[in-house]
What we know:
By secondary structure, the protein is mainly α.
Amino acid sequence: MKKSELRQVLKPLIKECIKEVIFEEGILSNIVSDEAQGLGGQTIVETQQPTPPQRDYEEETRIANQKLQETRKRMLDAVGKDAYNGVDLFAGTTPSAAPTETKQGDPLSGVDPRDSGVDISQLFGGVNKNWSGMVK
C-alpha cells in the first residue's frame, strides 16, 4: 500500500475519532469553561501615581524680588541714609548675572544674556519691506 492510499484511508477515521472525543465527551465545553474562568479572575487594577505639584514661577519670582528689596533696604540702613543725603544708591540697578561656567570657544561667553544685541532691521536700507518684489 502506498503512502497516499494509506493517508486516504486513515485521514477520515482520525478526523471522526477527534470529533467524537471533542464533542461527545464534552472536552470542548470543559476547555471553553476553563478559559472563561481564567479570563474572569485576572482583573487589572491601575493605580494613579500622584502628580508632583507644579512650581509657581511667578510666586518664586515675587518672593525673590521681595528678598532683594529687603536686602537693599538693610544695606541702606547699615550705610545710613544721611551718608548719601537719603539717595538710594541701588535705584534702577539690576543684580549681576551669576558666574557661569564658560565653555571653550563660546563666542558669547562675556555677553549678558539680557543684552538684546544690535538691531539689523535697517541694515539693507529697508529691503525687507519690498522683499516680495525682489524675489520675483
